[in-house]
Design a protein that fits this description.
By secondary structure, the chain is α/β, with parallel strands linked by helices. The chain is about 35% helix and about 15% strand. The protein has four helices and six strands. A six-stranded parallel β-sheet has the order 3-2-1-4-5-6, with helices on both faces. Helix 3 links the parallel strand 4 and strand 5. Helix 2 packs across helix 3 and helix 3 runs parallel beside helix 4. The longest helix is centred in the last third of the chain and has 16 residues. The chain is globular and about 45 Å long. The mean pLDDT is about 90.
């Protein structure tokens, strides 16, 4: 593998979508929320970082030297705050591309709060000027 290629940070690596990405033949750094989760991912221990979506310093360490990110957070009332924080830290760190797992029909005007939150996060990511999907 080319050492000059920046790794992809995979959040949600213990979940169904993130774990599928870890198995690809590309350099990855895997983010888990708890030290105990390290053994739950199919990755070498040196490619795993423990970080918390509520801890900016741990997120900054997780994205250091990263080229692209796959972002998924737990579905909770804090998801929009956590995803916005993460996106801002990633943009500041020079991450080139952020792939955010969103929801179909995400829209800030939606009567469904999770769809509103996803729409708001998508808008924030676009405003940061970082590449996004």
């Amino acid at each position: 593998m080319d050492e000059r290629i920046k790794p992809i940070l995979v959040t949600g690596a213990t979940g169904s979508t993130g774990s599928a990405l870890v198995k690809r033949d590309v350099p990855v750094r895997v983010m888990v929320r708890r030290k105990a989760d390290v053994r739950r991912v199919d990755a070498t221990p040196e490619s795993v970082v423990v970080a918390d979506f509520d801890d900016s310093a741990s997120l900054a360490a997780a994205v250091h030297g990263i080229g692209r990110v796959y972002l998924v957070t737990p579905s909770s009332e804090k998801a929009d705050t956590q995803q916005n924080r993460f996106a801002e830290i990633a943009a500041k760190a020079g991450v080139e591309q952020l792939v955010k797992l969103s929801q179909l029909a995400a829209d800030e005007a939606s009567p469904v709060r999770f769809l509103r939150w996803h729409g708001a996060v998508e808008r924030r990511i676009r405003a940061l000027g970082i590449g996004f999907t």
